[in-house]
Design a protein that fits this description.
Layout: E1 11-16, E2 20-25, H1 32-42, E3 47-51, E4 54-57, H2 58-74, E5 82-86, H3 91-102, E6 106-109, H4 116-126, E7 130-133, H5 135-138, E8 151-154, E9 164-165, H6 166-173, E10 188-195, E11 201-207, H7 208-221, E12 229-232, H8 239-251, E13 255-258, H9 264-274, E14 278-281, H10 283-291, E15 305-308, H11 315-324, E16 329-336, E17 341-345, E18 359-360, E19 365-369, E20 382-387, H12 399-405, E21 406-407, E22 410-419, E23 425-430, E24 434-437, E25 440-443, H13 444-452, E26 459-467, E27 471-479, H14 487-495, E28 506-510, H15 525-533
Parallel strand pairs: 3-13, 5-6, 5-7, 7-8, 8-9, 12-13, 14-15, 15-16, 27-28
Antiparallel strand pairs: 1-2, 3-4, 10-11, 16-17, 17-18, 19-20, 20-22, 21-22, 22-23, 24-25, 26-27
Helix pairs in contact: 2-3, 2-6, 7-8
Length: about 525
Amino acid sequence: MTKNNVMDFKKNIEPHYDSRDLLCFENRPNDFLEILKDIVKKHPDRVALCFQEQYISYKKLDELSDSFAGGLLKSGLIEKNILVINLANSIEFVVALFASFKIGLIAMPVGHRHKKQELISLYNDAGVHAVIFDKETEKEQPLSKDSNSILFITTQAEPQTDCLKFNELLEKGVEEKITLKKIEEEEPAILLYTSGTTGRPKGAILTHLGLVHSFLHFQMELALKDGECTILAVPASHVTGLVAQILTIIGCAGKIVIMEHFEVKEFAILAKKHGLTYSILVPAMYALLLHRNALIAEDLKSWRIGAFGGAPMPDAVRKELASKLPFLSLNNAYGATETTSPTTIIPINCNDQGDSVGLVVACGEIKIVNENNEEINQGETGELWIKGPMVIPGYWKNEKATKSSFEDGYWKSGDIASQDKNGFIRIHDRKKDMINRGGYKIFSAEIENLMMLMDEVQEAALVPYPCPILGERSHAFIFTSSASLEPNEIRLQLLEKVADYKVPDKITITNKPLPRNVNGKITKAPLRERAHKGL
């Protein structure tokens, strides 16, 4: 968005989602199609996307997404159908995203590392109508007679299965007239699934209202300029890659350099070649860049903003980055899928905030509550509740989860936090039982439940242990009376059902029951201690 300076935006209280009075930017774009059309008009030839040696201008992106949208219409999709985007980072991902906006589909990005059993569960829960996939995700697609109601589309020129081809749909859609209707900003735009503490996935409903406000928050707090350049190295299917990079950089009429997968040497080469200005990575990626001596200050003078999230930045990494790249502002951005990305951000060039995750974004509201849901005093710790136009209205077809996760318009984050006298937020612990492995979230309950389904497993618990590169790794403790059960057997069974990053890094098998409290519940504190001692 180039026509307004976000710093000039006034804020008003507006009613949204039936019962929430939310602080919103008054003079805001309605949606990202409005933003894209404005950029195409002003900067048609400016590069929007770059993948390897392929460059896509804003005009071309607009044309490609028009054509793909037309092809989807000709294939029978209608407004409010769900389009799964099960692709690695690619130009096709962005085209499919904007095509879905143009014809009122709900885009549902899904991580490319999911296994077939996970995909079946997600597809069934959402009630999907079409899936676009690539070579990497083809083998995990539930392509069978049971999925006849789903339209499968591949980006491959020569697929192994009989399904529609992306390029053929582009050709079919060229002549199709796309009538852009007025988008209602409270309508679902994107469906992102996030696991809960029970292990059952929940579909977070991201609206146009939330997407626009999240972009404006990033632009304001990080002082993003017209024509920024980023390298998309985190998964586009995660809220960070999707909102903090793809939509935010398009909102700035900037250039997105796409990496299919993060690789240290390639990242450094691309940063120099394209003049990287803005990044948002998980701390593990910054640590790897340092570890492999990939950061040369002379090559990276354009790199002004180094945002991060998903895990704390180790002090040693922060100090080394400051030493090697003194012109780089490091900015923690804390949020969640349910908050459409940022809730708090360390302001630009705000130094020496230690372990803080920053200040609440302009249209955000928070409160920190005790066990009785009563707001506590400044400096005390409690559960962080979050409210604002960027917070989702609820979970897809899951009234029970929505009711339990929201109160008075606030989303209950499950994170234990405090706020100091200057307004800075600190996250102290997680109420939810989750492991953060290099930015990939592993919910212990999901893996424990799968291990408990194995015939010889009697008890199972998953706990984190620290890792200097990834932040955390996972350690499984398993009680069995079998003398033949081996860790590799457990890993192989899990790999058939879940993404590889969810498989425990370490597995300890014991013939003694796991520790339990007086109520009979497994206590993880002694297991965490054992995992730490085992380093």
